[in-house]
Amino acid sequence: MTPLEIIASALGITSVWLTVRQNPLCWPIGLVMVLLYAWFFFDARLYSLVLLHGVFAAMQLYGWWQWRQDVDANGKRPVSGAGRNEILIGLGVALLFGVLLGLAMDRLTEAIHPWPDALLTAFSLLAQLWMALKRWQCWVLWIVVDVLYVGFFAFQGYWLTAGLYAVFTMLAVLGLREWRASRVQPA
C-alpha cells in the first residue's frame, strides 16, 4: 500500500458516499480521487484503467454540470430511470467498446491484463454516464462492476484497492435502494 493508494481510497469512499446522498460535492472530490488513481494505475501498468480514470475526470466535470441542470424545488436534479432502449443500447455499446479496447491493449501495449481491464473499463464508463444523468440503474451496473473489480484487484495483490471496491459495492447497494426510493415516477 502506498500513500497515494490510501489517499485515493479515502477520497473514493467519500465521493461515493456523497453520491449516494445526492450531494453535488461528490463531483469535485471524485475528480481529485480519479486523478490520483490514474497516477496509481499508470505505475501499475494497467493502462485501460489509466484511460478510464482520465475519462472519469472529464465525466466528473460533466456530472457536476449535469446535476445542476433541471433541478427541482430542493435544488437537486431528480433521479429517473433509463428506458429499455437506453439500457440495451448502452450495454451493447459498452460491450463493443470493451472488446475494441481489449484488442488494442492486447496488441499495442504491454498491459498486464488487457481483457478484464478493458471490459471493466467500458462498463464503468457506462455506469458513470448513467450516474451523471441520475439514472437509478447506474447502481445495478456499479454493483456488478465493483464485485468484479474486487476479484480483479485481489488477484493482483492490491488489497487496499480491492477493499475499496468492496466498500464501493456496499455503497452501491445503498445507492440503489436510496435512488430507487427517490426517483421520479413516470406520469
From TrEMBL:
The keyword Metal-binding does not apply. It is found in: Cell membrane. Keywords: Cell membrane, Membrane, Transmembrane, Transmembrane helix, Transport. InterPro entries: NMN_transpt_PnuC. Its main location: membrane. It is a multi-pass membrane protein. One of its GO terms (molecular function) is nicotinamide riboside transmembrane transporter activity. The keyword Protein transport does not apply. Coiled coil: none annotated. GO terms for cellular component: plasma membrane. The chain crosses the membrane at residues 25-42, 49-67, 87-105, 117-133, 153-176. Belongs to the nicotinamide ribonucleoside (NR) uptake permease (TC 4.B.1) family. Required for nicotinamide riboside transport across the inner membrane. This is Nicotinamide riboside transporter PnuC. It comes from Aquipseudomonas campi.
